[in-house]
Write a structure and sequence with these properties.
Strand content: under 5%
Radius of gyration: 18 Å
Number of domains: 2
Pfam family, one: MazG-like
Structural class: mainly alpha
Order of helices and strands: HHHHHH
Organism: Kutzneria albida DSM 43870
Protein name: Nucleotide pyrophosphohydrolase
GO molecular function: dCTP diphosphatase activity
Helix content: over 70%
Number of helices: 6
Shape: globular
CATH superfamily of the largest domain: MazG-like
Length: about 120
């Protein structure tokens, strides 16, 4: 087992102990994930890049951002588990595809989308 599988198993047990599987549909989990991502964005919304660098290094903002990162990860892992997706394999496969779509020689230093390179 890898760490994602361990985390998924723990979340599965957590939901089962509370009879929450009925609520953990792909749609509901995707919506919850989007909400948590929004909460992460809200923590940084009105800060400058300099303030973010300074404040995420420690203190209250770091804890709030850490909590939101955890919420995003937990919902993502739960969503993937319910859908039968291995998130680590999916991420590695996506990197492989992106390496083909964004060759370093063409994409370096550019934010241009792959179909415009």
């Amino acid at each position: 087992m890898n760490e994602f599988e361990d985390l998924a198993a723990r979340l599965r047990a957590f939901a089962a102990a509370r009879d929450w599987e009925q609520f953990h549909t792909p749609k509901n989990l995707a919506m919850a994930l989007a909400g948590e991502a929004g909460e992460l964005v809200a923590e940084l919304q009105w800060l400058t890049e300099e303030q973010i660098r300074e404040q995420v290094g420690g203190g209250e903002l770091r804890q709030r951002v850490s909590d939101e990162v955890a919420d995003v990860l937990l919902y993502l892992v739960r969503f993937a588990d319910v859908c039968g997706i291995d998130p680590l394999r999916a991420a590695l496969d996506k990197i492989d595809r992106n390496e083909e779509r964004y060759p370093a020689a063409l994409a370096k230093g550019s934010a241009t989308k792959y179909d415009q390179l």
